[in-house]
Every structure is written in structure tokens, then in C-alpha cells.
Amino acid sequence: MSRVFIVGSSELPQRVSVGRDEVLDWVFVVLPGVSASIPLVIDIDGPGAEVRLAGLYLCGSDEQVVFDIEVRHNVGDSHSSQFFNGIAGGHSRAAFHGRILVRPDAQRIKAFQENHNLLLSETARVETTPQLEIYADDVECSHGATTGFLNLDEQFYMRSRGIPEAEAKVLQMISFLSPVLARIADPAEQERLRAEVEAAVRAL
Fold first, then answer.
1. Which end of the chain is more exposed for a tag (fewer CB within 10 A), N or C?
2. pLDDT tens digits for 137-150?
3. Looking at the whole model, is its pTM more than 0.85?
């Protein structure tokens, strides 16, 4: 199941079960001007199942965006990954609450979670709380989160090669979001959303 959800224009699922050998591959996109709360619970109920979640959010004004995601490994021999990148500017507020639950009998699990954020202003706020709750011992699990500002050394490097400061910042933001866009399976849809995201970044 591969699908891209444009938050604000797509009906969003709130709970789903993934069975034996099924693959769930979802990407969430939140463009500027959209405020939303996105709660999602995924139960992995069959061995051989794989869940791949990715998302990006662009908040340039006063938007409020909250992802609240829980992935439950109820059986062994299953995989999951979560990869979310966000950019917050103006007076916006963004939050990523991610939880991986591994049940006691769910052995041989691989589960990974990442959330990275860029702040474009001193007044924007991001809250990130990746969590692991593991009750089995034969697992590979990790989580991580970062929040920071645009890298000034990278900007200096590009400016020293004739790229204007504003364009250097745009290139940094596009590069930051590109790994999420690369997870869109359909090439035509990926190209369309790349163009839409680049236009949104340039308008921030």
C-alpha cells in the first residue's frame, strides 16, 4: 500500500492494521497555510510486515501542525521506519510525537524513527518527542531528533561561489526536504510534489 497524503485536502486515516507480508508505504505532506492534528495508530499484526512512514511539513506563518504517531509491533519478524522533516518559521508551532511499541513476544524486530527540524525564526517553536517502549530482547530499534537553524557555513560556501544569500537559503531548505520526497514511489507524483514544495519554500 503506497500512498501520499496531502494534509488538508486528503482524508487521513487514524488507525490501520498491517497483516502478514504486507507493506505499508505512506508519505504525508503539509504545505504552508495548513494547520492540522494528525493522529495515527498502526498495528503490525502479521510476520513479514513492513511499515514505512515519511512526512514533511512547511510552516511559515502561524500554522499549528501536530503529528501523533504510534506504531505497535504486536508480532515478531516485522519492520518499521518513520522519517519526518519539518521547517517552521514566523510564529508557527509544530510537534512530532512518535512512539514505537514492541510487545513482549515480538522478537526479531527492526524499528527506526527520525525527526529533524529547521527553525527560520526566533519565534517559531518545535516540539519533538520520539519514544521507544520495548518489551522484547531480540530487537534493533533506534530513534533520534534534531532541531536547529540553517547552517551559516553552508551559506557562506555557496555565497563565495556567486549564489545570492536568498537562493542559498532556498537550496538548503530544498535539500533538507528532499530525502522525504525521495520516498514517494510514483515518479510522476514525486516530480509534481517536488515542484510544489520548491514553490512553497520560495514563498516562505
1. N
2. 999 999 999 999 99
3. yes
